[in-house]
Design the sequence.
């Protein structure tokens, strides 16, 4: 299995629409309570959730956004003596794509800014820019 390198953006009490900043109402359902269509949507996810569902020691829970009741995440847990073991936790692929795209946009903008800064510094050294031109970067 390939390494997983996904970060957590923000910890919130809800699902947040990244385009509006609105917190969306959510509900948690046990996987067997999902509709056939909702279960079908989880087939192309990174993990094989059917294996988790078929394990009698584990319970699979789904986080859904209220409204269209779209599955936003799944979690496989095992209730043990004195603790709860989380076996798998996955965000819906459409959420991961959005996060990766946002990260890439931010990263690309920083790289473009640094390239422009390097060009300006070089031009200043060559005497092509006025001496008081400011060259700085923001991280």
Sequence:
């Amino acid at each position: 299995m390939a390494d997983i390198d996904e970060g957590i953006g923000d910890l919130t009490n809800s699902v947040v629409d990244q385009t509006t900043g609105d917190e969306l109402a959510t509900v948690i359902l046990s996987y067997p309570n999902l509709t056939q269509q909702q279960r079908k949507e989880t087939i192309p996810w990174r993990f094989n959730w059917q294996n988790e569902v078929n394990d009698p020691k584990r319970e699979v829970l789904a986080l859904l956004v209220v409204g269209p009741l779209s599955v936003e995440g799944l979690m496989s847990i095992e209730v043990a003596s004195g603790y709860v073991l989380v076996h798998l936790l996955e965000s819906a692929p459409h959420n991961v794509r959005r996060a990766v795209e946002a990260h890439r946009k931010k990263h690309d903008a920083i790289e473009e800014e640094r390239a422009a800064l390097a060009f300006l510094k070089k031009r200043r050294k060559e005497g092509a820019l006025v001496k008081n031109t400011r060259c700085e970067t923001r991280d």
User: Anything to note?
Assistant: The radius of gyration is 23 Å. The mean pLDDT is 76.
